[in-house]
## 1
Amino acid sequence: MNKTRIIVMSLALGLYTATWAGGKPKKAFIPMDYSTCGYHASELSIPDVRNVVTVTKTQGDCSSRIQKAIDYVASMKADKNGHRGTILIGEGTFYLEQPLRISASGVVLRGMGKNKTRLVKKGFDREALIYIEGKNSLTKGDTIKVADKKLAAGSNKLTLASAAKVKAGDRIMILRPSTKEWIAALKCDDFGGGLDYTGWKPTDIDMLWNRTITSVEGNNITIDAPLTMTIDQLYGNASLITSYNKGEITECGVENMTIESAHNDWNPKDEDHCWDGVWMNYTSDCWVRRVDFKHFAGSAVNLQKQTRRTTVEDCVASEPVSEIGGWRRRVFLTRGEQNLFQRCVSKDGYHDFAADYCAAGPNAFVQCDGEGSLSFSGSIGSWAPGLLFDVVNIEGNDLSFRNLENWQMGTGWNTANSMFWQCTASTLFCYSPDKDNRCSANACWGTMTGNGEWSGSNDAVTPRSLFYDQLQKRVGEKANNGFVYNRNITASSSPTIEVAQKLALESVTTPRVTIEMWMDSIPYTANVSKNGLKDIDNIKFGRNNKSSAKDLHSKEKNFAITDGHLTFDGKLIVGNRFAIPWWNGRTKDNFILKSAKPAITRFVPGREGTGWTDRIDSVVTFLKDNDYCMLDQHYGLWYDLRRIDHERVKRSDGEVSAPFYEQPFARSGKGKAWEGLSKYDLTKPNEWYWQREREFAETGAKEGLLLFNHNYFQHNIIEAGAHWVDSPWRPVNNINNTNFPEPVPFAGDKRVFMAEQFYNENDPALRPLHKSYIRMCLDQLKDNDNVVQLISEEYTGPLHFTRFWLQTVAEWEKETGKHPIIALSCTKDAQDSILADPELSKVVDVIDIRYWHYNTDGLWAPPAGKNMAPRQFMRKMKVGKTGYKEAYKSVSEYKRLYPQKAVTFFAQQYPQYGWAILMAGGSLPNIPVKDVKFLTDAAKMYVMANDGGDDSYDILGNPDVGYIVYTHNDREQKVAASPGKYNIYAIDKSNGTMKILEKKISITSAHTIPQIKSEQVYWFEKI
């Protein structure tokens, strides 16, 4: 046995006899066995996987070369242990423009040493440097009721209603629902104020454990790791699900290198850079070891919900670059289960060692140090049970097991059945949620508070590590070596003179061993020799990047306004408008699964997917699959989700809550804004925000999608006062000396009317800032021809500001020679005035109708510049009823006056009237037709008068391509078609399917519409 293994001590069920330095026995309550955490449940050492290829340093971006090596190894056959091989990255600094992605089992990235191999991620994205990610692919399974009336936390034996469908070796899941009754028993349904919107709701805290059955006896089963909370039928029935994720990848690792995030030197709180070092999901039995992390804003290692049995060891994270506040610097983080962090050091972290929302557990942190800690460690999310903090030291801050109540929008109880063992912190909060879910602390140092189980306080005990003592008891000689550093705990408070002299000499000559020093003494046995290895540059594998880029370029398609229509590759663009979420949301898993909608500039640090930080390709796929043709984009109403309380108060700290609705401006790194982070600089772009818009535009362009970019968002400056208090334009939130009044003159101490001042383009302080920002919007998207620029969402601003916006656009176009698509989106009186101006009308490409409409009584058209929002006008002016005819009239009037401009309609009761928009000659009609020939021909058509001179039908046509007819009654009608051969179709308005009525017929004069019906669409296709 290795000498560094710790001495086995006796463990009674639930009680532990630890030995105090003075010999006095203490009884410690141990909630469960935590030792199943780590790579292969810590029963196997991390393997030294053989090297199979090397990558040497070159100038410039090395991401494609290393990714090629990863993909090459992924294509190899795995050995009997599931290992394919290791990519040995050579000495030097490797700059990466793109993240590295491991998506197959058995692939390892290894450096030559922490001081020899350095990977540096460049760019403005806030992603991870390395992703290790499988897929979510659950097998089909049955659901079996757990029959036990009550299972204590720490149980690994269950009784099923029937075990007929399970056997030893089966991978299963166990679900414990969070019911209304359980939530109420914990008093987490309402955290105060009589406002329950932040309280827990049923299904919010459902727990799901992934386990393997080790034995079956009758209806009794044993599983390979304990359940981390008490399951009581009083609060709902638990179930066993005979399913598992077959898309999980295993046996992957990152080791023996330094990885860094490049950042802007001008801003010490810069956040437009890489956030996470290593990010994992849908993985098991993986590892990160001997890696130094520098400058990351988020996490060094981020283990997401579907990670299990991962070991992170001998890692140091230092010099983070970010704001100081919520969702930042969560350095060593787990949302998964059976994950082990050992011998890790975090410097200047916010939450150094943390479990997040509903991490099923158990999870363990062993022999870890936080230096210069800026906030607490422990659980930072709701109900992450089964945590072990074992010999963890948090310098200058706290360790926390407690009810966090309304912190971070209703965290409530952050853990249960968790253990502090020989930990040190400024304050240790150890509370138990109830008598069945108890937390415990043994032999800890610091200020102690809570109703948890306390023992041995301010004492040192043996064994040094609870985790490794439990592991040795469980598996004996197979136990993984913990390299536990055993400090001398025998120093007496009343030494002899000789002993005192000896200790004094030691204090001068023998430095105190830190965890960082200790980990450097641990041997690293993996091979770092390049002898016999091929360099990836000498291996033919994968696509030829140059030829593929050429192929892609040859297939580029264009967006344009053709004959007054918005087109893509010559086809009329059709589909619905997607309006982004911009103020609400949650980060809880059940909200994400049921209610979340895509967004492109919403940011949830460390979490990726719809409702969090959306992956752009997924957003594009969603829009295409759901028949959207454009995304309406603008900045968020506020950045910090806490503001959904609609309070106007200044926040006492930077504990901002996600999801974050990003603003287009960069933070300055200076001062303190109203929500607690640094102030904005209105002259500098938020590089991440604009990169995300460009990425969407570029990815969406391949699918024919448009990006409507609203420069402003009027909602900030009218209506509720909370809309304004966090706005970057408010003087207290920026470094640019905007001269809006402070204190804010809230109307009725609640409402805000800031539009009059905001839209004053002649104000000497605001004018240059407005011009700079408008130009920023144009500059950032100047190379994307599928972007449509608009002045503002919800815009009812004054005519003079609309003119100023267009004049600024015109100046920019003249200077740059660029001509983006410009949409005039404002009230009708302002639109008519602008369009009557010959110079300003030239700037306008699209007439966007959304703030006025015709109704059955006439015209609903709020005036410009009256300091009221659209919905406020709706409350004071009768909106009226609209239909096909009213929508048709709105569009057709402008098409007759301005036939070369595109006209879009998103006004009252959109999207009901897509066919009216089409037949009036409008653009972006939300019709369900996908036929390429139909859309190509429609783009060339224009509004024509029907032969009867009445309103019995509407017609679009072009003698060269054909006609589209929309009938309003079933009387016989004739179409004066140009001579030629035609196919005539009836089109189902609801789904776009086409039925051939007459095929290849010759028409020489007016032709009767066959099988005519009222409210029917007919296509005369000229062939």
## 2
Amino acid sequence: MKIIYLGASSMLAVILAAGLPGAASAAAAATASTDVTEVVVTGSFIAGTPKTTAIPVTVMTQADIEKRGSPNIVELIKTLPIIGPVLGDSNQFSTAAQGRSGGGTINIRGLGAQRTLVLLNGERFAGYTADTNLLPVAAIGRVEVLKDGAAATYGSDAIGGVVNFITRKNFKGLEVSGDYRYVSGSDGDYTASLLYGWSGDTSNLLLSAGYQHRAELSTTKRDWTLAPYLVNPSGWSVLGNPGEFTIKNGAGGTGTTVGFAMDANCAAVGGFAGFTGTTPACYFSYIPFDNVVERQDQYQAYGEFNAKVGDKSDFHIEALYAQTSIPAIRFSPGYPPTSGPNGPGSVNVYSVPASNPGFATFLAQTGNSALNGVAQSALATLWRPFANGGNNSTGGLGGQSGSRKYEEFRVSANLKGDTGIADIGYALGGSYIREWQDQQTTDILIDRLQRALNGFGGSGCTGTTPGANGCQYYNPFSNAYAGNPARGLVNPGFVSANANDPALVASLFDRQKFLATQTTFIADAVFNGKLPFTLPGGDIGWAAGTQYRKITYEQSIGSPFYDANITPCPVSGVTTCAFKTGPYIFLGQNIPLRLEQSVWAAFGELNIPVSDAINAQLAIRYEDYGGQTGSTTNPQFRAKWKLTDWIALRGSVGTSFRGPTASNVAPTGTTGLSGITSAGNNFKSVDFFGNPATGPEKALTYSVGAIVQTDHLTATIDYWSYKLDNQIVNVPANIVATAVAGTGNGSQTVNCASPLRGLITFNNGNACTQGVTVGNDIARVRSDTTNGPTVRTDGIDADVTYRFDDVLDGNVELGGNVSYILNYKQDAFAFGGVTVSPAYQAAGFTNYDRLPGTIPKWRGLFYADYSRGPHNLRWTLNYVDSAKDNRGPTTVQTGPSTNCNVANAVAGTATNCQLTTQGLKVASFISHDLTYRLALPRDYTITATVFNVLDTEPSKARIELSYDPFIGNPLGRTFKVGLQKRF
């Protein structure tokens, strides 16, 4: 017997089985369609698999999303209770986001986005981790979320679960939509979309185009992002401008020290005049120069064609082009130096001659006029080239300006039908996916900076006389700028004659251009049918198939300075040096690279209707990666037992896996940035390296649950558990740094004898002197790929929906969906025979300095929906639980101190030292949304939404922007109006 369902209403059984809020209203909406189609549920390859089986699938329909005011895809994903930390907001300070600023991810169970498989119409959307911002939003009809490991069915990456975005089916006509969202402090967000559908007797066509715009939202428009240094030091750096200088009586920073001075005007331009140890320092906050939200433009064009081929086959082909563009991502006006002309170093690595135009003014403003004629130079002790004065060559508020662009072209086709042999069906398919990324970031070149300090700056410099023949001096002192452009502060010490030429400033920078292309080819063949004998519950369905995946990754370097093969040393043209740190004062380098990976797989599946009450599924998959990685085999068993007409039990057990990516096993590296806790949270370079010996990770997953279903009530509850072994991970840079340098404001001394010392490069030529070298001396941290410790996480999901009919001539529906994490434990982390970190509990903690990121214990979504004729009103409450900062407090100095660390501050023995308490517990975040929809004559629909009705601000956290983007929302109360017209 072949099982068939009504096309649009075929979602109902899944919704009811999964308990998604909105199930009842979806049932009512579903009756509009009468197209009969055979269904394959996400999580199974067997045609006609009943949607009342044990597969734990949650569904969001187009109607569900529209009733919530059509939040953008990032916000939609973040409100799913089963989701952990995801990208999509401006998380540039997150190490995880730096490789994909402007991208979006899905992270089921908090196991990592790389462990959630994203599909489009049942086929892989990307080669590895999918960028959800590239999905064809206008064409999506529903989203199915499989809340269970599914590698036995889909292969690598499905450890946490699967999210299947399914396009609209059997759409006829033309639909035009647009909306505008008012966001205080920005120009607002808006979207537009066009959808066209045609259907004939044996074929149909769907075309869509979509555009989404997010406006730039500066941190200066959210005053809570800039916390005072003594409250939250995370967004402040000891390397600033105004800086601190050691004055010498010899040229080029040589000779005897004749003075030390902190440059003038610190407080006036927004700095904090404090100390690091006993050294005066003007701390600099780069936060006002950054954005909470970057300007972002997204485009998608999608089409699909379906046709009957003869009497027994169906052909499907779909194509997508999508692009995300961030034309001007903002950074600090200038990065701090971690390398100088002689290699690693931040302190005293750049010198300023007395002939520099700003030098005499610097001496006068710091009370050192008596040193005129004596002082021949000064060493920049604690300093960066551009800070409070901004960068006058980039416009805007003075931050550096980079860019990001991501593109995807994807074609997928399949032919499905009946072989004509023993009722065996077949599905032959193939996909071609091409992904591009273009990332551009600016940084200052070491040699150009030192030459400009000496008077040989500028692109037109010729000759050997400083400051002549087109050569210019770069003035490194605070008298060079008029004020802080981001904060609107005036510099009383500004001398216009000493100002730096914007063209000179621009010439100091090189634009790093990272271009990468990833091509994925997938071919698969699946056969399915029924065994020649039956059970009391019906026919035994089976499916078997094979798959081949090939991924080719290529990266090119668009600047000779950025290419470590061409410019390995600080000076261009020099290839032999003691420390090959490259030519940039802060950022690292990359190299051209080509990587390939091929995977073969075979899989099988049985659907076993033991009786009318009991249904079971068995699946198994074998994948072979070749090389040192080898192969893996993973089985899975699911079952459902219908106890009565209104209650059923379900459960599953199985193993899932994820193979290493091509870059995981490549013996090369890339460079990112991370705020290092032991360096006072100052950003340092982190070098990520692959490892050819990296093997696959494997997880044991199981779940048990119950489903209750009556005429008006649907409820589910599930207990789930994951045990992940040999997780593929980079050794966290913060864990390495803390093991060597402890915690504090960066003035604490490090342990040079630490077994992890070799993973850190220090300033001063990588020298480490016990009792002298401090946390702030960290220049770079190495982070290698490895198979890490076991992770164990378990929890409970619960959904409930209840419908009331004939209430004030309409229908009322109440629903809730919650997820509670009981445990998220990571075993002790050993690397190279050394324990990197002890075992810990991550659930309920922010985990800023360790895996897996913020894991609140509770997440929930609740709603009340009222529908009456053409009117619909929905209230939605989103809840994210609080989380404790596992790092505990840190210290800040209120004056000179030689013993300011956490232990001494707690004991009360520290001098001029206090603990910071902001964000020790990041409070829960609750937001209320209200949406009204009205269907008008002539197929018009208007929507009005107020997001975050109570204008709740995100809770304070001790990270750069002073809020946790994985808990709170920075936008505040926003208003959105939309219009849709169907023809």
